[in-house]
Amino acid sequence: MKVCFVVDKFPSLSETFVLDQIEGCLARGIEVGVICNETTFGKERNIDDPRWRNLPGGVAQWWGALGPLRPSLRRWSGKLWDKASTALDIAFAGKLEKYDVIVAHFGNNGLRVARAMKQRRISAPLVTIFHGHDVGAPMHDGSLSRYEVVFRQGALQLPVNGFFRDALIEAGARADRVAVHHMGVDTETIGFRAGERRDSRLALISVCRLTEKKGIEFALRALGEVQSVRPDIDWSYTIIGGGELLDAMKQLAASLGIAGRVAFRGPCPHSEVKQRLAEAHVFVLPSVKAGDGDLEGIPVALMEAMAAGLTVVSTYHSGIPELIEDGRTGLLAPERDVGALAQKLVWIADNPGSCEELARAARRKVEEDFDSGRLNDAFADTLFHLAATKVAA
Fold first, then answer.
1. What's the number of CA atoms in the CB half-sphere (13 Å) around residue 328?
2. Boundaries of each Glycosyl transferase family domain copy (predicted)?
3. What architecture (CATH level 2) is domain 187-369?
4. In what order do the strands lie in the sheet with 156-159?
5. Do domains 2-184+371-392 and 187-369 have the same CATH topology?
6. What span, in angstroms and rounded, lies between the C-alpha atoms of 236 and 280?
7. Cα(317)–Cα(302) distance, rounded to whole angstroms?
8. Rg of the chain in Å (alpha carbons)
């Protein structure tokens, strides 16, 4: 079976879930190819792996030699960009014809494939995986119906959480063609340590791009409050990741008087991330709805932290409560509620024994519902079924 993954950039450090899914398909005997807007070989050394260069189906840019024109054309707005890009998508869509199943990550890519399928009569079943911004932003501006052609042309919509599933069905997707498919982590490769504290200092960590929806502003403000109301608590906070808000977050930490306790590490290799997770006690990700409507799906970083044995602190946001149950597998606070978040952090500092119980329950939750091995088995079964349906047709 030949399966094509359609993505924006490949490979991408911020989309390791795509690489994990591709790896899972390869391990199950599926021939994988990738069509993307831009290849990043030689640019992102942390994931510049020969496996991605040498996929059985190859890696190709959708617009071929015209691919470099995309950034220039993207400066156009509205219908002009939509018409030009769609015309080029259709013109170069022949690359999709050799595959048995097409998997589009993010709704925008599903939309591009669906439009091309309609014009080029491509018969391969289309699976579109919806992750976050592709649902949140159109929900915010009332344009979720833009995916109507995806709902008609696509064989299956796979949102990563139940919140998105309900939104897609409400927007017109057939309920029997929408199913939740979580992203996951390889629990066998993540060592578990139930948050033992070898000294009095509480080590907190966040791993994310520094964008609005990650809510790092509120983590910093909460720690500023902890320092004010409980100066007896000794803590340190490591933030791994870059992004457009990096400088602003550094300035915020300084204005709150906590810069000496906060280390901004920037982007790090996955091996270093795992090591720093092993040294930490608490993982903080107080996600929020961004001003443009951008939402989380269910952050893989939370899954990794839970599997590793950290106490996780997050928010009642999008699909996160499907992963974290407050007081059972982690702690949740309302979005943007600095006081509630500070209280959760103080509770963690005062209750190390209870945190170990949370950590064990969290590990079980990830093993049962978010293990990438199980999820990739189910995903491969879905692809084989769809390919068989195409052959039968």
1. 9
2. 197-364
3. 3-Layer(aba) Sandwich (3.40)
4. 59-61, 31-39, 2-10, 101-105, 126-130, 156-159
5. yes
6. 9
7. 13
8. 22
Q: Exposed/middle/buried for 169, CB within 10 Å: 0-12, 13-18, 19+?
A: middle
Q: How far apart are CA 315 and CA 349, in angstroms?
A: 19
Paired strand residues for 36: 7, 61
- Residue matched to tokens 């579109």: 128
**Position of tokens 């009332």?**
142
Task: Write out the DSSP string of 46-88.
Answer: GG--HHHHT-TT-EEETTGGGGGGHHHHTTS-HHHHHHHHHHH
CA distance linking residue 136 with residue 130, whole number of Å: 10
φ/ψ (deg, to 5) at 375:
-65, -40
Looking at residue 76, what is its pLDDT?
A: 83
User: 86-92: long-range contacts at Cβ-Cβ below 8 A with a sequence spacing of 24 or more?
Assistant: 86/112, 86/115, 88/63, 89/62, 89/63, 89/115, 89/116, 90/115, 90/116, 90/119, 90/120, 92/62, 92/63, 92/64, 92/66
Domain ranges within the chain, ordered by starting residue: 2-184+371-392, 187-369
Tokens encoding 20 = 């994990």
Specify the pLDDT at position 342.
Answer: 98
Q: 324 pLDDT exceeds 70?
A: yes
In single-letter form, the type of residue at position 365 comes to: K
Confidence of residue 148 (pLDDT cuts 50, 70, 90): very high
As given in the structure block, the two tokens for residue 40 are 């990043």
- Taking the complete model, does pTM exceed 0.85, yes or no? yes
Q: Which amino acid is at 62?
A: W
Phi and psi, residue 196, nearest 5°: -60, 140
CATH 3.40.50.2000 given to domain 2-184+371-392? yes
Residues in the chain: 393
